[in-house]
């Protein structure tokens, strides 16, 4: 793996795994009142667009990172709808 | 602008501007209790790494999007520390 791909992989790991503590927090507290619903709707659409961009440019880190982020983000969105009231 | 750059720009706009409703929400409610501090710390580090990746690959959408996201994310982090208790 060259250094550019390595940095892209580190970046992808961080922006993807960052959603894990948020998921755990909502699970523990059963509260998502302070989270913005619009943030996660717009963010999910953006991540889906990054995924298309990654496919079109052939960038493996962008594809891998955004696939996983989309799943995490979708799950937080689901929990926001469930616990956000 | 070719179609690949256009999709990257749309993606960048969405993942960047998605933080705006979250910022506005914290401003209005003065509450960030449900937000995960670790999420925004790890996310900010990831965005900084994407910025380096964008510079190294010469990708204008990645550079532009992550510059602005870093500022927004840093500001939410600041407000989380201020209002998160």
Q: Shape of chain A from CA axes? A: elongated
CATH class of chain A: Mainly Alpha
The radius of gyration of chain A is: 14 Å
Strand content of chain A: under 5%
Give the biggest sheet of chain A.
Answer: none
The count of domains of chain A is 1
Structural class of chain A: mainly alpha
How many helices of chain A in DSSP terms? 4
**Rounded mean pLDDT score of chain A:** 92
SSE diagram, text form:
The structure is a homodimer of 85-residue chains.
Chain A: H1 3-17, H2 19-29, H3 37-57, H4 60-83
Outline:
2 copies of one chain form a homodimer. Chain A is mainly alpha-helical and 85 residues long.
Describe the structure in your own words.
- Two copies of one chain form a homodimer.
- Chain A is an all-alpha fold and 85 residues long.
- Chain A has one domain (3-83): Monooxygenase (Up-down Bundle), CATH 1.20.1280.
- In chain A, 84% of the residues lie in helices and 0% in strands.
- Chain A is built from four helices and no strands.
- Chain A has helices spanning 3-17, 19-29, 37-57, 60-83.
- In chain A, α1 (3-17) packs parallel to α4 (60-83) and α2 runs parallel beside α4 (60-83).
- The longest helix of chain A has 24 residues, at 60-83.
- The interface between A and B is large, with 45 and 45 residues.
Record keyword descriptors for this entry.
homodimer, 85 residues, mainly alpha, Monooxygenase, 4 helices, 84% helix
């Amino acid at each position: 793996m060259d250094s550019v791909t390595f940095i892209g992989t580190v970046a992808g790991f961080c922006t993807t795994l960052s959603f894990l503590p948020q998921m755990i927090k909502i699970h523990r507290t059963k509260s998502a009142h302070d989270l913005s619903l619009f943030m996660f709707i717009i963010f999910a659409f953006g991540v889906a667009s990054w995924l298309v961009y990654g496919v079109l440019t052939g960038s493996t880190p962008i594809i891998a990172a955004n696939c996983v982020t989309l799943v995490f983000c979708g799950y937080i969105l689901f929990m926001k709808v469930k616990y956000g009231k």
